[in-house]
Amino acid sequence: MENAMLTRLGLQAARICCFFLLAPTCALAQFVPDDYTLVGVAVRTRPAYDGSDSQHTDLIPVLRYYGKPWFARTTQGVLEGGARWALASGLDAGVQVAYEEGRETSESSLLQRLNLADIDPGASIGAHLEWDSKIGRAPISLLGRVRQNVDTDRGAQADLRFNAGLYASGGVILAAYAQATWASSKYIESFYAVNNADSGLLHTSLGLLGSYDFSRHWTAVAGAQARRLHGDAAGSMIVESKTGYYANVGIAYRF
Prior knowledge:
Layout: H1 2-22, E1 38-47, E2 55-66, E3 70-73, E4 80-88, E5 91-100, H2 109-114, E6 122-135, E7 138-149, E8 156-169, E9 172-183, H3 185-192, E10 200-213, E11 218-229, H4 231-234, E12 243-254
Antiparallel strand pairs: 1-2, 1-12, 2-3, 3-4, 4-5, 5-6, 6-7, 7-8, 8-9, 9-10, 10-11, 11-12
């Protein structure tokens, strides 16, 4: 079983690398100065929902703005904005409002057969703590974030995300990240149609990220992610595949 698990992980890593060569999660995090602002758009391919075999394409924003104290970003896996304050050198705390994606029945033949209703997109309110440092010359960051959906029946989530810079030269930046997300029982029950679900680890993700400055103000961004479901969500009747793949490529204006 252990060898089979290692084989699956190896295949997942290979697929991530292939995606990266073709096409960001828009998440280069803190690997550029705080006054580095990006606004743009990316084309994304993604599952209809985590657990679906259906793959769809859409447009997503590319956003990175850090002011004092306001911020807005897509660089940590979700579209969010709020305020943050420095607690110490390299350590910041903040509060945020985030966009939470829903689930459209029309995008999945399985959901249509099960006659499950749409779950509309929503918003969450939460807080985060973020630490930025370096290992040698490589920048790293660690983010802890909690978020409660404004619709209390949709439950809450908590994220722990680690980012690491891999390469930066000649306008090229490469980075990688790993993230674990936990969910409350309400979230799992409402999104995955599971009765009496236990709260716990929802999914883990591995990703590669990149950007290239091809002029003073214009930047191409690209990246990919593999995300694997765990716990009661992974055993849901709507889960066709425990591992899903995301990739996107876009362009942003830097100022």
